[in-house]
Amino acid sequence: MELLTDALYWIGAVTVAWVSVSTLGCLLNGIRVWIVGNGNLMRAAKLGKWAVVTGATDGIGKAYAEELARRGFAIVLISRTQEKLDEVSKAIESKYNVETKTISADFGSVDIYPKIESGLAGLEIGVLVNNVGVSYSYPEFFLNIPDIDSAFVDFFSRGLDAEYKSKGIIIQSVLPFYVTTKLSKIRRPTLDIPTPERYVKAQLSTVGLQTQSNGYFPHAIMGWVTTALLPAKLLNKYVMSMGLSQRARYLKKQKQG
């Protein structure tokens, strides 16, 4: 009986110690990422003169271009419409007094890459924000297809980071939840649905600290809840209901003209 009591005591002690150390580690890591941040890492003087941003004329992409320009980077803007590129380029040069360059490219095509390669030739590129995406104007069925694409990009990004970190190259997979953009069809910001500007400013502070990041503290909490606590069946049901609601609103608006 005494042997059993001793065994239970040590099992309990080890369990409490493990939980305490794990909790402390999570707390310290959270302070490091979300409060301390990466300091002045995201500056042109540290990384290189140019930042390249795809999907740079709207939403999160435009916010990245503006925030990186504010931090001293010259900006290469890549997007589909030259008129919008010129407009954003002029605004950034005027406001932040940095050099810009534009490349018009439709990522729905497959023959754009020689043009992009030529446009980037000879530039000292310190940052690439691969933000561009192709999607329907509203949530479409067969959500498993873009989900598979997103999973591949996430896994591929983390794999590249593991391979190239020793060469001084930082690669981060960014997994945001909803942000107030044209793509999300959400216009009113809240604590958990930030503006693109607020999201980008928070996300850039996590570069170099997390290989995979939700980029914004409330999104990190949501990510932890959905992956660690919420049953997959319930999560899928919630995502489906959100998608169906957005789809219905969009189609209704289209019918109304």
Gist of the model:
The chain is α/β, with parallel strands linked by helices and 257 residues long. It has 9 helices and 6 strands.
What does this structure look like?
The protein is α/β, with parallel strands linked by helices and 257 residues long. The chain has 2 domains: 40-131, Rossmann fold (3-Layer(aba) Sandwich); 135-257, no CATH class. It is built from 9 helices and 6 strands; from the N terminus they run H-H-E-H-E-H-E-H-E-H-E-H-E-H-H. A 4-stranded parallel sheet has the order 3-2-1-4, with helices on both faces. A two-stranded parallel ribbon has the order 5-6. Helix 7 links the parallel strand 5 (173-174) and strand 6. Helix 3 (59-70) packs across helix 7 (196-204). The protein is globular. The termini are far apart. The model has no long low-confidence stretch (mean pLDDT 87).
Q: What topology does this entry show?
A:
Blueprint: H1 2-36, H2 44-47, E1 50-54, H3 59-70, E2 74-79, H4 82-96, E3 100-104, H5 113-120, E4 125-129, H6 144-164, E5 173-174, H7 196-204, E6 212-213, H8 217-229, H9 232-256
Parallel strand pairs: 1-2, 1-4, 2-3, 5-6
Helix pairs in contact: 3-7
Name the features:
4-stranded parallel sheet, globular, alpha/beta, 257 residues, 9 helices, two-stranded parallel ribbon, Rossmann fold, single chain
Q: pLDDT under 50 segments (min length 5)?
A: none
Structural class: alpha/beta
In this structure, how is the largest beta sheet organized? 4 strands, parallel
Strand proportion: 5-15%
Assign an overall shape.
globular
Q: How would you state the average pLDDT, rounded?
A: 87
Transmembrane segments: 7-35
GO biological process, one term: steroid biosynthetic process
Protein name: Very-long-chain 3-oxoacyl-reductase-B-like protein
Pfam families: adh_short
